[in-house]
Amino acid sequence: MTEPKIYTVSELSQGIKYLLESQFRELWVEGEISGLKVSSLGHTYFDLKDANSNISGVLFRGFAANMKFDLQNGLLVRVRGNITTYDKQSKYQLMAKEVQPAGIGPLQLAFEQLKKKLQSEGLFDAARKRAIPALPQKIAVVTSPTGAAIRDILSILKRRYANMHIIVAPVKVQGAGSKEEIAQAIKDLNEGFPDIDVMLVGRGGGSMEDLWAFNEEIVARAIAGSKIPVISCVGHETDFTIADFVADLRAPTPSAAAELVVKSKVELAANIAGLERRLLQSLRIYYENLQGKFRRLVSSRAMVNPLVLLERPTRRLDDAVEGMFAASADRLRRAGEKLNLQTEKLKALSPLFPLKKGYAIVKDIKGQAVKTAAALAPGDRLSLQFAEGRADAEVLGPAKAGGAGISADGRKQKTKSKGTDGPGQETLW
Fold first, then answer.
1. Residue-wise pLDDT tens digits, 407-425
2. How far is Cα 152 from Cα 139, in angstroms, rounded to an integer?
3. Which of 260, 185, 271 lies closest to 228 in space, CA to CA?
4. CA nearest 216: which of 69, 64, 60?
5. Which of 12, 181, 191, 323 could form a disulfide with 7 if both were Cys (CB 3.0 to 4.6 A apart)?
């Protein structure tokens, strides 16, 4: 009996690998992307599935760099590659070399994906777009120096406005390196020529592949970041690129851009002539209005008899003066009455007021008022203040119990009887 062949695990794994790779070489598989992951090294891992089955796949970084669109979960694709195994896990997988969308071309898909991305960031918003100057003095053109587009642009600008200052930034407009040159030219013009009024970016017509540089993200972001207003002019009227959506203005063709960016001398002259006619008409209407106002003013009553202008102001002035004097007289009368009243009150409060009733003010030699008879002694000198005039006096002695006799002429007198004055003397008690 022949002994069965005993395989090692590695031998069996290698045999399976050989069978799979030799049997399923360079095949296309259609399915839906799921479980998409991108490693730190740039390799893309995914599952490709249909309604009943699932197979793992890998797209290494070198192959992924050639793709125009991004893989997404749920995307129906066709994958070209071969079947291989990963020995350490006994797992077979599809090693992809090319991926195409099923039902839509890769360029169109890439276009839609980038358009959606930039739109979500607000790069297409009308609010961020700037107005193109009406009469630019300096224009830059970013395009191929050998294409028909630059010839058309220069010819139209020269015909419409010959003394325009034009700067041409020569770049590749298709093929490898074109997107980088276009983006760099836009940045260089912004940095080196900040006085440029407007920039034209574009090329002549071609296929979608020919125009693809203007659908690249690097170009779109360069246009969006430009401080100089940008007119996009790519291809024919029916061609739309990402650059058209980001630019401040889209022109259907390079020739149309040249016509949009400057008005011809004929158009400018016609506009100036129209403005001149409107200005003269406005001045004539204004002059006629002034004439009418002048005639009405000259024939007015005020101009015929200028004193009419003074009638109303004069009456107002007279009324104001009369009112002022009336108010002043009334205030003076009230003030006088108030003054008289206060004067009478002051008089009533005056210490001299009682003197008119026959009283006198008695002061000692020091000028102090004497309030009681007990404060006096015989021989004291006194001053008597009357309502009219004053007199000196001397205390003679007591005239009554608790009082003193006073001589009005200042001499001491001997009284013959208590309370009786002799001839020629006046005694106060």
1. 554 443 333 333 333 333 3
2. 15
3. 185
4. 69
5. 12
Instruction: With beta carbons less than 8 A apart as the criterion, state whether 415 and 404 touch.
Output: no
How does pLDDT run across 179-207, given as a tens digit for each residue?
Answer: 999 999 999 999 999 999 999 999 998 88
Q: Which residues pair with 361 in a beta bridge?
A: 385
Buried b (16+ CB within 10 A) or exposed e, 174-185: beeebbbbbbeb
Q: Which residue, 399, 420, 425, 398, is CA-closest to 410?
A: 425
Tell whether the torsion through CA atoms of 397, 403, 409 and 415 is positive or negative.
Answer: negative
Position 138: which residue type?
A: K
Tokens in use for 253?
């063709």
| Whether 265 contacts 161, CB under 8 Å | yes
Contacts 24+ apart (CB under 8 A), 163-166: 164/136, 164/137, 164/138, 164/139, 164/262, 165/137, 165/138, 165/139, 166/138, 166/139, 166/140, 166/141
Hey, is 164 helix, strand or coil?
coil
Could you tell me where the DSSP H helices lie in 299-357?
301-304, 308-349
What is the pTM for the complete model shown? 0.52
- pLDDT at residue 143 greater than cutoff 70: yes
111 in Cβ contact with 243 (< 8 Å): no
* Token output for 421: 């004055």
Write the DSSP string, 197-253: -EEEEEE----TTTTGGGGSHHHHHHHHT-SS-EEEEESSTT---HHHHHSSEE-SS
